[in-house]
Design a protein that fits this description.
The protein has one helix and five strands. With 101 residues, it is mostly beta strands. The longest helix is centred in the N-terminal third of the chain and has 15 residues.
Amino acid sequence: MKRLLILMTVVCIYSGCKTTMPTGSKNVVQINGTIEKLGMTTFQYGTHLIKSGNVTYALKSNKVNLNSFLAEEVRLKGTRVEGYPIENGPELIEVLEVDFK
């Protein structure tokens, strides 16, 4: 009985641990365009926008000060944030690095 209880405890602990696999390269994006400050929008996420051709992306970053690149042609690298777009808005990108084009 003790062995069964110990085995069940180990199985419960092991099954409760979640192993996260590294995100694939499908979520990594590189975008060329002009960064703009986010103004009044119908969606409520992101702090900045980047327009690349006819496509607009919402941006946020904890690593890069996006205000340093306002109205500049840049190339940025980031990851798509899961769960977006919502509210008919653009995709949300977590910016990892930005370079002047």
